Amino acid sequence: MANSISMVNRVSTAVKALFKKYPMASNAVVYGTLITGAEFTQQTVTKKLLVKPPHQEPIDTGSLGRYAIMGTLIYPNVLYIWYQWLDSRYVGTATKTIVKKLLLDQFVLTPPLLCAFFIIMSAMERKADIFEECRKKMIPTFQMSCMFWLPAQTLNFVFVPPVARVVYVGTCAFIWVNILVWIKRQQY
Description:
Blueprint: H1 2-21, H2 23-49, H3 61-89, H4 95-124, H5 132-159, H6 165-185
């Protein structure tokens, strides 16, 4: 038992050192893994678990790749810089500060992130009109994001230390991307 605890402590120390030395890269790996995992989860449920053989479909690795790009190269870097700025500009956990952070996060950052999601994914999917999906799905997606992210971000800004914000958001994003992937698959 003591060896197990010692090993967990060594791993924990090593992970903390990686996040301290390479914060953007570490956040990108964790966030990208969670986002890609959310797409994999959705595909597994919709293509394997909810259908019976022989109607099961193979996992779409191209889609997994697109989510890996969004989740590793784009979103975590934007979020890392955003939260650094937000936390340096609005310090503390006073109610007024939290409300400012929530409003800025939801109404300044979220709309461009959602637009980027639909437009970049459509471009990577080589759709003829890369803006069509954004036009059709932006408003209902934003409304749903308010219901999900405002409570999630309240917890983030009140309880999560700044160094762990991107990982926390990545963990919440695993749930959110399952919702987003479901919305993306809907016909509007």
